[in-house]
């Protein structure tokens, strides 16, 4: 444990000069940006008349509040959290709306007028939480920040259109997140619907229907005609039962910000999903560098609630500023500690804005990471100008796995390297390999925030050789 002189001074609201002076008295010469160990910091703080909270509830490295493990007997069943994914125009929004309208528990307030990024429905006395993450990018961006919110992914495929590029992307994102997939074959009301064709196409991606000897649940639905929606809910509950999702409602809340905005009248408004514990009005909460006391909470129907337990999405008022979507939030019992964490996060954020961090996995130090046992699986995303190259690389890669490292092609596609690819790579510690393609504008922007190793090649052989070399520690460094 260590702390930078400047941060220590900020925490005590005194000048860094005073801290440096005190350190000198103790025989330590330090600069304002120097790190000093926890013992020294405690000594200085005590000397200056400050109490130091020894109770470490915050990971100094990541500045994340540390999770206290819940004893098994404190865990109770919680509703499952479901995300709908799929190709554009295949009916994600329509399906979400149709389910919401037919199953949401109406209140006297009478309104399903509210649109928040998540809602709960009840089916056969059991609750299901639906999270509306617009696009796979959001889904994966959340994972890149360390938030895993989804238990089950519903893959929507339009029966008239069949498997499309974003269908495949959705499959790969769900797989990378290790969540079970239920396929909803939508638009079966259409004359040119070919649900069997969808089933056949998906077998290529290892989603094999049960009646064909596989394990994937397929439900044929029509969002427009509200056909088979109950059956879909039934299947979700079935998968949820196997997952046995649990949480401890009797502890301070933790969860994820799903979306947030600045409301003219109400100030920062955040929709959060409680993932563990119970969030209550009056709780002190932190999310990134935003903090505040929960002033009021609303459920998805706009009704005020005093508390929200596991898997419940709520709108929260009271944040000091708008927290970014995907940020983890924590209710902190000790408000002083909470403010301390925020202070350190702000310092750290400023420091990080200044320095460029290295990607988590890169070809350049892959060998070292293998040797240190940090890497056992090398995840690779392949983008190319033609499908043939994607397939060729996939096959070649499968053959170069060694006993130490398994090489996985987690996603492959035709076209430029996109922002979604960057997010997926960041969330899955993957390297991106491109053939005759380049990162597009948004990808380049995303690269500034998410450090990911991208390698561009013209010849497949070169890529394979590079990866082989990196795995055996023979890669020539790139200059
Ligand atoms: P998203 O882009 O995946 O969210 O797709 P939308 O929900 O916006 O739907 C795209 C289009 O397909 C809209 O015009 C919908 O009205 C239509 N659509 C969605 N579901 C169905 C369905 O079950 N049957 C038919 N015939 N049309 C549908």
TrEMBL record:
Main site of residence? cytoplasm
Q: What are the GO cellular component annotations?
A: cytosol
List where the protein spans the membrane.
none
Task: Kindly list the positions annotated as binding GTP.
Answer: 86-93, 132-136, 186-189
Domain Tr-type G positions: 77-246
Q: Which GO molecular function annotations are given, in alphabetical order?
A: GTP binding; GTPase activity; translation initiation factor activity
Key words of the record: Cytoplasm, GTP-binding, Initiation factor, Nucleotide-binding, Protein biosynthesis
Q: Where is this region: G-domain?
A: 80-228
Q: Where in the cell is it found?
A: Cytoplasm
On whether Nucleotide-binding is a keyword of this UniProt record, the answer is yes
Q: Which family would the database say this protein is a member of? A: Belongs to the TRAFAC class translation factor GTPase superfamily. Classic translation factor GTPase family. IF-2 subfamily.
**Role according to the record:** One of the essential components for the initiation of protein synthesis. Protects formylmethionyl-tRNA from spontaneous hydrolysis and promotes its binding to the 30S ribosomal subunits. Also involved in the hydrolysis of GTP during the formation of the 70S ribosomal complex.
According to UniProt, the name of this protein is Translation initiation factor IF-2
Give the originating organism: Desulfotruncus arcticus DSM 17038
* Gene label: infB
Coverage of the whole protein, first to last residue? 325 to 803 of 903
């Amino acid at each position: 444990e260590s702390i930078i002189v400047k941060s220590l001074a900020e925490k005590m609201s005194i000048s860094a000069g005073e801290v440096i002076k005190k350190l000198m008295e103790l025989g330590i010469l330090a600069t304002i940006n120097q790190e000093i160990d926890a013992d020294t910091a405690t000594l200085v703080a005590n000397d200056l008349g400050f109490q130091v909270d020894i109770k470490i509830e915050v990971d100094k490295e990541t500045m994340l509040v540390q999770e206290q493990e819940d004893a098994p007997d404190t865990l109770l069943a919680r509703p499952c959290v479901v995300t709908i994914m799929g190709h554009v125009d295949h009916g994600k929004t329509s399906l979400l709306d149709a389910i919401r309208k037919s199953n949401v528990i109406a209140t006297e307030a009478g309104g399903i007028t509210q649109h928040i990024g998540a809602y709960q429905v009840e089916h056969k006395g059991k609750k299901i939480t639906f999270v509306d993450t617009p696009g796979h990018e959001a889904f994966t961006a959340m994972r890149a920040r360390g938030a895993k919110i989804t238990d089950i992914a519903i893959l929507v495929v339009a029966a008239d259109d069949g498997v499309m590029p974003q269908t495949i992307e959705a499959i790969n994102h769900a797989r990378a997140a290790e969540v079970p997939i239920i396929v909803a074959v939508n638009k079966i009301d259409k004359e040119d619907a070919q649900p069997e064709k969808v089933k056949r196409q998906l077998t290529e991606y290892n989603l094999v229907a049960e009646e064909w000897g596989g394990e994937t649940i397929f439900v044929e639905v029509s969002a427009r005609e509200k056909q088979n929606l109950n059956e879909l809910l039934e299947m979700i509950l079935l998968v949820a039962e196997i997952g046995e999702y649990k949480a401890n409602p009797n502890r301070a809340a933790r969860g994820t910000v799903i979306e947030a905005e600045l409301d003219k009248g109400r100030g920062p408004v955040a929709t959060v999903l409680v993932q563990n514990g119970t969030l209550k009005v009056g709780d002190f909460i932190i999310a990134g560098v935003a903090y505040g006391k929960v002033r009021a909470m609303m459920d998805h129907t706009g009704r005020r609630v005093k508390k929200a337990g596991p898997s419940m999405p709520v709108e929260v008022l009271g944040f000091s500023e708008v927290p970014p979507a995907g940020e983890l939030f924590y209710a902190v019992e000790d408000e002083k500690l909470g403010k301390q964490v925020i202070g350190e996060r702000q310092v750290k954020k400023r420091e990080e804005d200044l320095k460029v961090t290295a990607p988590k996995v890169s070809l350049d130090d892959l060998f070292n990471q293998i040797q240190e046992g940090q890497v056992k699986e090398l995840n690779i995303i392949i983008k190319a100008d033609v499908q043939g190259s994607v397939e060729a690389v996939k096959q070649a890669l499968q053959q170069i796995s060694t006993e130490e490292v398994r090489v996985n092609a987690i996603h492959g596609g035709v076209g430029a390297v996109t922002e979604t690819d960057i997010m997926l790579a960041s969330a899955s510690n993957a390297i991106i390999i491109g053939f005759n393609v380049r990162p597009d504008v948004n990808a380049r922007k995303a690269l500034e925030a998410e450090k990911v190793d991208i390698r561009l090649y013209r010849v497949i052989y070169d890529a394979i050789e590079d990866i082989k070399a990196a795995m055996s520690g023979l890669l020539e460094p790139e200059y």
